[in-house]
Amino acid sequence: MSIIKKLALVIVSLSLVAVSSVSSAKPFSPKKPIELIIPAGQGGGADEIARLVQGVIEKNDYASKPVIPINKKGGSGGEAMTYVKKKAGDEHTLIITLNNVLTTPVNQPELGIDFFNDFTPLARLITDTFLVWIATEGKNTQGVETFDDFIALAKGNGLVMGGTGSMSEDELLLGMMRGQFGFDAKYVPYDGGGAVAKGLVGGESDFTLNNPSEQMGFYQSGDSKALVMMTPERNPAFPDVPSSYELGYPDLEYYMMRAFMAPAGIDAEVEKYYTGLLHTVYHDNEFQTFNIDDGKLMSWLEGFGLKDFLAIEYAKHGEIIKNFN
Amino acid sequence: MDVFILLLEGIFVSFEPLNLGLLIFGCLIGLFVGAMPGLGSVNGVAILIPITFIIPPTAAIIFLAAVYYGAMYGGAISSVMLGIPGASTAVATVFDGRPLAVKGEAMTALTAAAVGSFVGGTVSVILFTLFAPPLAEVALRFNAPETFALMVMAFATFVGLGGDDVPKTIFSILIGLALSTIGLDLITGKPRLIFFNIPGFLHGINFLVLAIGIYGIGEMLWTLEETKGKVQMSKLSVNMKEVGRAFGALKKTIMAMNIGSFLGFFVGILPAAGATPASLMSYGITKQLSKNSKEFGSGVPAGVVAPECANNSASTGSMLPMLTLGIPGSPTTAILLGGMILWGLTPGPLLFTQEPEFVWGLIGSLYIANFFTLVLNIALIPAFLMVLRIPFAILAPVIFVLCVTGGYAPTQSLHDVWLMLLFGFAGYILRKLDYPVAPAVLSIVLGPLAEKALRQSLILSDGSMGIFFDMAEKPIAAIIMYIAIVLLIMPAFGPLYRKYFKKAQTT
Q1: Is ipTM strictly over 0.85?
Q2: Per the structure, how many domains does chain B have?
Q3: Which of A101, B143, B222, B267 is the most exposed place for a label (fewest CB within 10 A)?
């Protein structure tokens, strides 16, 4: 009898162990390659970060499955966002953001993208800022040494500004500056930040609002110079460029965020896994060194902080767009 | 003399065991991705970028440049053997390469492609070595009005592409231009012509989707009808006589080599153009200037040499703005540029002095990569020719599968596969009706470039077309524009002139 009892106990306890091991959620790990959607073309800033993240993950085996970057540049990010929206609940899709994720849903309501409900924000890794650039030998900007010189010049003359495309960050910034300083410029769109930088040094445009990395080569060779950086503090990669706060223009503050989002409707475990993966990447030495040398700001943000940040940025961009049109 | 010492050092760098091994490996991978429809140098380089994090930057760039380079050669193989462009850069190679293969002269076509590529690659790397800094200056001064003038010149040469039936050619050009406007408005950033609100149209009509449809599917349907599934040609021997004949045919392609090398290089160093437009423009201009321009499209070696020479030349050329200005000259160099930044290099005017080993190692490796790919290609020709012994009933499904994967690969979207099939049928019908399709293919590539440059220029000039004819302010743009106008009216007056001239001769 006792043996049977013992046996029964063993069977019961064994089955309990089996049941409990099934019911307690196992930590998520990817079962197939992870698609990383890039809402921009190859060779741009978002593409660069996406491929860096991919490289860091693969080199160090941070994930059990490979990360595959896919560029969907159509419709100012509209194509990428529509794609991710349709992937609701998919556990193997991520999207890296440019600020076009904040502007495209507003500018293209016909896409039917609901920024707050169609995505699961995971983490922000980096923020990039903008500087006002002129060519050192610019024929229309001779004698301009400071940002105030530049404003005075720009007010009287219709200068030409090179930018990365209509309704992109730099055109919105031009709209912002128009409101703040009362000057306007002729906006000529180019293919990406590199071409914008070249247009400036080649003499086709008079000024640009480039990211730090886009002008780095020309800045180091002395072909272009920056007048102001749109941040509260100076950046170690550009020690001689004053911040907008120093110059007394604290309203001139603008960031481009490099954050990652997943589709809507994923489990909390999945969210936790990807946030953890990104956190590991963020603290990787190589990742840190590369971004700091490139003039980027390392700015980890996750959870509610990130949600608040996105809500504020979304509202801010809505305001800029409204004033722009 | 400094240049030669630096170059020699660069060549030594690329002979280091790791670098040389990666170079040969890269060439082979490049040949493969180039030959696979839909997989081109862009995908090849993008896929391989993460691997390069574990090797030194110089080895990495040598490896990726070899892939880029090999892909330029590889694209020709499927263009000639299957009639499917292996990569966007090899679309123009189909125009004459395929008819040559159908005529039983595949050997000639492949030899022309390999030698043309070698010549283009070598000439361009020599130009690169000798004139990099002044050419960077040219690229810097070549802005929107100049680009538009160049595009007008390219279009002017296309009018002559479709033979004497000018109205049908213009129709074909306009179809291509109309298709090229689908997607994103380049200036306002708004979507346009998104039919039925299908999101797939947001990225526009991918050029390779059109080309694979028209040439892959269209050609397959056409051949099925012609051969009824039989072997296309059975008597194919590779002997010294054939080889001799193939090399002999190259004598008539000297002009195509010149145009391809120099034009390709020049187009390559211009930002945002790259090897695809270069190969198409080279084909158009060579045809226009050739004495027997009427035979182009029916299988002449010069029609293979012109684009193949140009795409290799342009791929080298596009590395110039990448290294010296930090701007990509082609989609592939855009990725290489991203790679360079990730490896911790700052592309720009100082790169040549700050990182001589990297820059000259790359340049040196290009000389060697050229040589290796030529040898590989010539040696592999008999293997490629085996494809022709396969009965078409077996080959057709293979081609179909390659076309479908090729349509899917560039954008990873099924939407494009359907579009590709649609274009295939449309291409077949157009061919039946005797419409030239090449001009449509060319227009869809150059349409967006031309539109963007035109609109940028008009913003700069406040809407005045005078910006293109201003000899004092923009002499380069004006000169190119006048040449374009002459090229445009040449084919129109050509027949008239010949008529008059013949009359004068007979009387």
Answers
A1: no
A2: 1
A3: B222
Higher pLDDT, A165 or A278: A278
Instruction: Tell me which residue range forms the domain holding B298.
Output: 2-506
Name the pairing type of β-strands A119-129 and A131-135. Answer: unpaired
| Calpha distance A78→A101 (Å, rounded) | 8
Give the whole-angstrom CA distance, residue B431 versus residue B383. Answer: 31
A294 contacts on B by Cβ (under 8 Å): 341
Distance from B487 to chain A by nearest Cα, in Å? 28
Alpha-carbon distance of A130 to A142, in angstroms, equals 22
- Mean pLDDT computed over A20-40: 77
Residues 321-380 in B contacting A (C-alpha not used; CB under 8 Å) = 321, 325-328, 331, 333-335, 337-339, 341-342, 344, 346-351
- Amino acid B99 reads P
Residue carrying the six token digits 């051949």: B223
Question: Using one digit for the tens of pLDDT, what is the confidence trace for A183-196?
Answer: 889 999 887 777 88
Domains of chain A by start residue, with CATH = 34-128+255-324 (3.40.190.150), 131-229 (3.40.190.10)
Task: Choose the most confident range, by mean pLDDT, from A274-288, B143-157, B355-369.
Answer: A274-288
Cβ contacts of B187 on chain A, cutoff 8 Å: 166, 189
Name the residue among B46, B184, B347 with its Cβ closest to that of A42. Answer: B46
Residue of B nearest to A39 (CA): B203
